[in-house]
Specification:
292 residues; alpha+beta; Rossmann fold; Dna Ligase, domain 1; 3 domains; 5-stranded antiparallel β-sheet; 32% helix; binds adenosine-5'-diphosphate; binds magnesium ion
């Protein structure tokens, strides 16, 4: 099979390189769909592509574009879909996963536990939302975050005002969320592939931080999932419609589990390192079995 990957990072980007190697071992080929060099056009009412890609070669496409090109490359996703190329994941699911508040709404609507959270798009809403969450401390975070950037612990009005002032101008709004202290907390990333748990790892913030993103720490550990956690992770991926999902869970000091966010193009080097599992192989196998 020819498996396209939407990425602006080229073949040498580690997860792409690893997927390409594993695909080749299984007799398949990875083809880069680079949104910098592939341009969707609508001519005479039909979707077509200009640039460096022969679409007839593609059997399926994995949208794995990162922040480099961000939302702009989302244009390629429905375009490829309308041109008849199957996608893993699909546009509707990606849209939800890219927006943390839309994600939390979708999870909450099917009774999946999440942290108490409010959304504001102007400073006017801050005090009411803060009061409703029970006051400081809160976490203030962007709607479309990545690798923990822009996620702040806020303890007072001064810091809140500064962060809101710097961020509300973007017009994207911002999330205000109940803080779950890192002491005796368990942060877990569960990788769901095709409605099954492919693996899970434990993450820990660095001392003095509360964010456990693998990008920030480069450390990961194996973890045994309780059946309840597994069920919640699967239900969360299903609620968003993600076939491949990195589901982030936090278990607080009282043992209560909540879903923080879902990633539609999860990295897997930390998970492979922690568990020894062949996650790249699982992804390729799923894609080939489902779309081959
Ligand atoms: N409400 C919260 N309370 C405590 N820690 C949090 C909370 N929300 C997020 N974190 C920590 O910060 C990290 C980054 O937050 P997240 O919302 O996942 O943003 P990003 O999309 O940038 O990864 C999480 O992995 C978690 O460790
Ligand atoms: Mg995260």
């Amino acid at each position: 099979m020819n498996i396209g990957i939407i990425t602006a990072e080229g073949y040498d980007y580690p997860p792409t390189k690893r997927l390409a190697k594993v695909a080749a071992e299984k007799g398949h080929r990875i083809i880069i769909v680079d949104p910098i060099y592939v341009w969707p056009v609508l001519v005479s009412g039909s979707p077509d592509l200009e640039g460096e890609l022969d679409i007839s070669m593609l059997d399926v496409v994995l949208p794995r574009q990162g922040a480099t090109v961000n939302d702009s490359s989302l244009k390629l996703v429905p375009h490829l879909h309308h041109m008849g190329v199957p996608l893993v994941n699909k546009l509707d699911a990606i849209r939800l996963a890219k927006d943390q508040f839309l994600t939390l709404q979708a999870l909450s609507s099917v009774q999946i536990p999440i942290p108490d959270t409010g959304f504001i798009n102007a400073y006017e809403g801050f005090q009411s939302v803060l009061d409703r969450l029970g006051g400081y401390p809160v976490v203030i975070k962007p709607v479309s975050g990545r690798v923990g950037e822009g996620v702040f612990l806020v303890n007072d009005d001064h810091k809140a005002r500064l962060i809101l002032h710097n961020n509300l101008e973007t017009g994207k709004g911002i999330l205000i969320q109940r803080f779950i202290p890192p002491e005796n907390r368990l942060d877990i990333r569960v990788l769901v592939i095709g409605g099954k748990v492919a693996g899970a790892m434990k993450l820990k913030p660095k001392p003095g931080d509360f964010r456990s993103n693998f990008h920030l720490t480069q450390k990961s550990w194996p973890v045994e999932l309780l059946p309840e956690w597994e069920e919640i992770a699967l239900k969360a991926a299903d609620a968003l419609g993600l076939e491949i999902a990195g589901v982030d869970l936090i278990v607080d000091a009282d043992g209560k589990v909540r879903v923080i966010e879902l990633n539609y193009s999860p990295g897997f080097s930390g998970l492979e390192a922690a568990t020894g599992l062949d996650i790249a192989g699982r992804i390729i196998d799923y894609v080939v079995e489902t779309y081959g």
